[in-house]
């Protein structure tokens, strides 16, 4: 990265480059702005409490993130030339792009939880922390600036987190395998590959193509910002547990099947490095649990070509439809909500009330999500799998299948179901710290 393209870490919100702590606690607060002046006053009050990516303190220290939807930018009174400089997909919103995202059927916005897709979510304020005490303290700091303020309304709140030993709603260790970003100041972990150009994730810097991506105007608004995609999934735990029991006879077989669906054992240990037996110590070691390639497994005998992990990051897999994998990488800041995974949940009443906020950041989040949804999640052609869909977040159709390559004959599992149903979604703009101040001080 050229010297004049040095990442201005002191102006980039911490959540862009700071890894989520483990264990973690937090809250998402969604606000509606009914009065532009009140909204700008909120941003003025919050801005000093929003950490920058340069403030790398002890692991687990709390931080606040502030993001704004297009409807929120309108409500805050941005000038028309700035509003029109945002990409069309961002201005239309995730619900408005449901056709391009293949969010149909059970995932259609008609089934989303209010207020997602309604246009009422203007601001997202999120608190992340590694300790319960710091979470409550930091959330109270944020609350003092919005609670009871005329012209603002809280339209949704969601506590989230995972304590030591907790797994995601379907029983897996998650948030493994983040991309390395050039200039971030964070040393790459083994297996991350070469650092990806910062412009793929942060506006104002060269991307993999050599130049920066288009950014909102004026420059102070766009530079050092990024886009956020948020998708609320409700996990069907009982449906998933029944599926494992119907297609595997023993606990060991069920755990292997669960690993084949994702590409990792539930502990986080990758099948590439632990193909036959789980290795929890490996799964918990960030210096080893992502340090592999698929060079020795071209046909998917260890990690099925259609598994969730291999779809979302094919690495060196030879694909039927060629693409540059680095152009579709995302920063993930996903959070789980509701009760922890229950392996004994089997009744339909256990489906609902827990799930995952899939949160990702990218300088072209809208284009990237539409590509992933169309080509890698809800289609199998890029891996020569025909109509097969992602077994974790894919929207399954009647009679859907999942293929496990093995010798001498592949195993094809029929009647795989939708295990994570989409129940909300929004696109946000995550401004730089200077952009937050610029918006807050609009005349």
Automatic annotation (TrEMBL):
InterPro entries named among the record's database cross-references: Dimeric_a/b-barrel, Dyp_peroxidase
UniProt keyword annotations, A-Z: Iron, Metal-binding, Oxidoreductase, Peroxidase
GO-annotated cellular components: cytosol
An MF annotation (GO) of this entry: heme binding
Cofactor annotation: heme b
Family: Belongs to the DyP-type peroxidase family.
Name this protein carries in UniProt: Dyp-type peroxidase
Species: Solirubrobacter ginsenosidimutans
Lineage, opening ranks: Bacteria, Bacillati, Actinomycetota, Thermoleophilia, Solirubrobacterales
């Amino acid at each position: 990265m050229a010297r004049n393209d040095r990442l201005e870490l002191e102006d980039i919100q911490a959540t862009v480059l700071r890894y989520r702590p483990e264990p973690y606690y937090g809250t998402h607060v969604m606000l509606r702005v009914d009065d532009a002046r009140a909204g700008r006053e909120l941003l003025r009050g919050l801005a000093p409490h929003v950490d920058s990516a340069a403030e790398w303190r002890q692991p687990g220290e709390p931080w606040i993130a502030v993001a704004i939807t297009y409807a929120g930018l309108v409500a805050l009174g941005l000038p028309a030339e700035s509003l029109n400089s945002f990409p069309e997909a961002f201005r239309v919103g995730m619900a408005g792009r449901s056709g391009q995202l293949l969010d149909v059927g059970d995932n259609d916005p008609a089934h989303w939880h209010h207020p997602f897709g309604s246009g009422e979510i203007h601001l997202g304020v999120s608190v992340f922390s590694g300790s319960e005490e710091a979470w409550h303290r930091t959330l109270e700091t944020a609350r003092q600036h919005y609670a009871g303020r005329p012209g603002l309304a809280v339209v949704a709140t969601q506590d989230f987190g995972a304590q030591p030993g907790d797994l995601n709603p379907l029983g897996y260790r998650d948030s493994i395998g983040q991309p390395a970003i050039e200039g971030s100041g964070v040393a790459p972990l083994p297996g991350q590959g070469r650092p990806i150009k910062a412009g793929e994730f942060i506006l104002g810097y060269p991307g993999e193509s050599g130049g920066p991506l288009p950014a909102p105007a004026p420059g102070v608004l766009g530079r050092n910002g990024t886009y956020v995609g948020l998708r609320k999934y409700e996990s069907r735990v009982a449906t998933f547990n029944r599926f494992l029991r119907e297609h595997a006879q023993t606990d060991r077989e069920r755990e292997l099947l669960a690993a084949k669906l994702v590409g990792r054992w539930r502990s986080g240990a990758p099948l590439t490095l632990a193909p036959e037996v789980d290795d929890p110590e490996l799964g918990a070691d960030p210096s080893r649990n992502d340090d592999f390639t698929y060079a020795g497994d071209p046909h998917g005998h260890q990690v099925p070509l259609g598994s969730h992990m291999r779809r979302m990051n094919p690495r060196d897999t030879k694909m039927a439809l060629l693409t540059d994998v680095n152009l579709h990488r995302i920063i993930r800041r996903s959070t789980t909500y509701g009760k922890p995974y229950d392996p004994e949940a089997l009744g339909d009443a256990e489906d609902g009330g827990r799930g995952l906020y899939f949160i990702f950041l990218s300088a072209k989040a809208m284009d990237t999500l539409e590509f992933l949804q169309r080509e890698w999640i809800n289609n199998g052609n890029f891996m020569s799998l025909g109509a097969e869909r992602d077994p974790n977040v894919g929207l399954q159709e009647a009679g859907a299948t999942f293929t496990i390559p093995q010798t001498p004959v592949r195993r094809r599992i029929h009647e795989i179901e939708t295990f994570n149903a989409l129940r909300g979604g929004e696109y946000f703009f995550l401004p730089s710290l200077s952009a937050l101040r610029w918006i807050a001080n609009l005349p």
